[in-house]
Each structure stands twice: as C-alpha cells, then as structure tokens.
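Review form for a predicted model. The reviewer records the input and the model, then writes brief findings.
Reviewer: anonymous (R2)
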Amino acid sequence: MEEKRRGLFVFVGLIIFTLLLAQTPDTSYWECGTPEDSLLGDKDQVGGWRLPEEGIIRVLVVFVQFEDDTIMPNSRYWPLDSMPYLPDWCRLLVYPDTCSYPNIENLSHTSDSANLSQYFYEMSFGRLHIIGDVYPKIVVPPHTMEWYSNSLNDNDKRIEKVNYDVLTYIDTAVVISESGDTLLKGVDFSLYDNWTLGSYEHINEPDGKVDFIIMIYRWLPWPWWSGLAGLPLDTVIVTYDSLPDGTRVKIVGTGM
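Model under review:
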C-alpha cells in the first residue's frame, strides 16, 4: 500500500494530495484531479515536460491536518494523536541531498525503498534527483474544515484558501522541537527556486518562482480527487525570501 500511495506523486509540478483516500482498499476513490488532456505534452518533443528530466530538483513537502479532522483516528500511517509531530515515515519521503542515497544496488532491500528520491533515481536510470526537505511538523490551518465550508461556497476556492493559509503561515512560523530547541525560523523558499522552467526547455538558474511543493493533507472533505498534479491558489504569494540579486521569491499556483 505504501508504494502505491507514494507512487501517485509521479505526476508533475506542484502537487496536492489527500492521504487517507489512498488508504482505502476501494480503488474507485483513487482519482487524479488533473484533467487528462492537461497532462499530454508534445510527443515529438525531447526532454522533460514542465520539469527537467535530469539534474537535481529540490522540493518542499508539507503535511497538513485540520483541527476538526476525525476521520480514521487510528490510521496506521497517520493517527490523529500524532499531531503536531510527524509520523516516522514522513521524514523518509525525500532525502535531503544526493549523498543520503543508500547503495543503489540494494535499493529494493532497504526499509525506505518507497522513498521518492529513490523512485525517481531508479525510474530515470540515475539521471533525475528529487531531493528536499520535509517541513518538521504537521501544519494546522488557522481555520477548521467547517469554517472553510461555511465561509466559501465553492470547492476550488476552499482549497485555494487553505493552501494560501498554510503556505503563508510556514513562511514565517518558528518551529520548536519537543525538547524546546528551535528547529526552523520560517521556511526559506529561495532554497526551492533553482530552475527557470519552460514547457520543454529548462535552465538550471532561479527565476524568482518556487519550483516544486508537495502538500499532503491528512483529509480534505471537498474534492472528488485523491491527488492533483497542481497547486490551487487564487493569488500569487510573495514570500519574505529573496534571491542574491534581491528578487523576492514567489509561489505561483498552477493555472495562474
């Protein structure tokens, strides 16, 4: 089940994903929310579509849980009472750098063989490295699911709003460990801007836009899909982080 669950990340770009829908044995719930025709590139083109097919892509992974979430409280993957600390498997979703890879010959025998870094390394024959960081705590949106449901009358707008709330929060939030140590003083989004992305031609230079964010919600009540190859936002987020030339880094949602 873990390999299937994490395999849904194979789409492209900025990703939003509902974890508990992927835990059900009824695969009718496993739906991609991205229209099929939007995932079809030009078959005559060479290279990665919207993302490079080789090189290093640094991603940010964020786990989100609503305060009023009551679904599957004893889930083996993400129990309700784990908040605010991440379940152990979450920390292994991506490696922080290429030096963290285990011996490639033994990948299928490692305990974290479903790790995204390993998956893309294997599928690309060692050409593509997906590395990055997992936000060190579960993020709780500022409002409950009920609030978003009552305050906004459109499912797309609800998801756009909660994404905006979560990302603007982690831009400045200070994260404290169980022992009282400071783990993070706001996410530095400039770390995740390393490419100037086109349709097929990509340059390994920052362009002022975050390249790749993976948001994993424990439960979202509104969408019909369990995964979406995109990041719904109704406005551009200008972060507090800058490139060396002073350019403020932005988070631009898909379709904007």
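Findings: Strands lie at 15-18, 55-64, 128-134, 174-176, 182-185, 213-217, 227-228, 237-242, 248-251.
Further findings: Confidence is low (pLDDT under 50) at residues 1-13, 22-30.
Recommendation: see findings above.
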